[in-house]
């Protein structure tokens, strides 16, 4: 009690935020966990069924497909999207003129609302011969492509849209890290006659390593929760080839009216995100030690 009395003013300042946090986050979270163990009529509990809802979700072929697809989203985001901000930051660090212009241009996609960006890329990927990209291909004599109608390429193409939207902010984080590197390292390297690639390889990249580890885990957590891009651009198609775990929760609850399965899958996703968040804390701690 003496601890609370000593910090009474601080607790009073935090109280409204804590009340809102409990009301809008913790109560719905605990309510969802509770619902996942019951047979439901709408949102009304009928009977306790233990882990039956979880077993039903795990047996659902759509869950298995969504789980695999979410792994593919993460994989392609690392292959396609992760190196892009690093490369852009390295290029920007070497730019002398118009640096502010390039930074602003890179960050602009981040201020575009997510749904508007998804609709923009859906328009670009229009599979009709008169679609934007197919029109460009037709201008150079190439045949139209199915784009988002292709089960093989639908996830990589959605990841391209995700990368376009988010790469600018990540690039600025990498650029800030590069600019915090002691300039004497580069001056000494130039006096030793090193070229740009050698300075990047032996000074810049090792200094970026802690930030790279931290942002890699953060990106995996973010892409694991991909929802509205496949929801808007493909609806999960073709033939569930782009269905994600969060989109499957949406289907369970708002399309099928199966709240119990949606609650169970929500808990499964939350546990996976807790594990990933623990990895993020570990990476942040290591980055702090190396910083």
How is the secondary structure organized here?
Elements: H1 2-6, H2 8-35, E1 38-41, E2 44-48, H3 52-59, H4 61-81, H5 83-94, H6 99-107, H7 114-124, H8 132-139, H9 154-179, H10 183-191, H11 196-224, H12 228-233, H13 245-255, H14 259-290
Antiparallel strand pairs: 1-2
Helix pairs in contact: 3-14, 4-9, 4-11, 5-9, 6-9, 9-11, 11-14, 13-14
User: What is the approximate shape?
Assistant: globular
What value does the average pLDDT take? 87
Q: Note poorly predicted spans.
A: none
How much is the radius of gyration in Å? Answer: 24 Å
Query: Level of helix content?
Result: over 70%
Decide which structural class fits the backbone.
Answer: mainly alpha
Our count of helices gives: 14
Distance linking N and C termini: 38 Å
The beta-strand count equals: 2
Strand order of the largest sheet: 1-2
What is the H-and-E element order?
Answer: HHEEHHHHHHHHHHHH
Largest sheet, strands/sense/barrel: 2 strands, antiparallel
Strand content: under 5%
